[in-house]
């Protein structure tokens, strides 16, 4: 793996570093696996109105991009940063359970628009850029803000940075399951 991807990890809070590295490992394993498929297959939706594999990947990138942007904005302003409460933690657990349930949910409008087709190599580059940006944002989280709500999920509300990274991993896993199911239905082994 490219060592440039880990250029600032020594600055990152160790708890965030572990979660970030898990996100990176998951992402690279999935993309490496998908690189063995042609773009026509990756752009084939399972049915009318359903997303193709590349559309799901695009959506995953957009969620990370919006999340990193929101957190970065909160870090820059450092205004109205509430403490993460028991209620926030409970909602974060409910979000985790919802994403692990296997149910499908309507994507929030800000991350629901996906292109009709996309090339996986371009998606990988976009995701690399998004991850490098996320890494930079995480490097900027000081210890005194670890328990502050730095992200507002559109359905469950404010989350701490640890809860936010857990959400990103759970969101990834939720869509990875969809991608694997779709891949099995499209690839006749």
Question: Secondary-structure blueprint of this entry?
Answer:
Blueprint: H1 14-34, H2 39-42, H3 53-77, H4 86-100, H5 120-139, E1 149-153, E2 157-160, H6 161-186
Antiparallel strand pairs: 1-2
Could you write a compact summary of the structure shown?
This protein has 189 residues and is mainly alpha-helical. The protein has helices at residues 14-34, 39-42, 53-77, 86-100, 120-139, 161-186, and strands at residues 149-153, 157-160. It has a single domain (10-186), classed as Four Helix Bundle (Hemerythrin (Met), subunit A).
Give a structural overview.
With 189 residues, the protein is mostly helical. It is built from six helices and two strands. The protein has helices at 14-34, 39-42, 53-77, 86-100, 120-139, 161-186, and strands at 149-153, 157-160. The chain has a two-stranded antiparallel sheet with strand order 1-2. A hairpin with a 3-residue loop joins β1 and β2 (157-160). It is globular and about 50 Å long. The protein starts with 13 loop residues before the first helix and ends with a helix.
Share in helix: 55-70%
**Unreliable residue stretches:** none
Q: How much is the average pLDDT?
A: 92
Number of domains: 1
Which descriptors apply to this entry?
single chain; 2 strands; two-stranded antiparallel sheet; mainly alpha; Four Helix Bundle (Hemerythrin (Met), subunit A); 189 residues
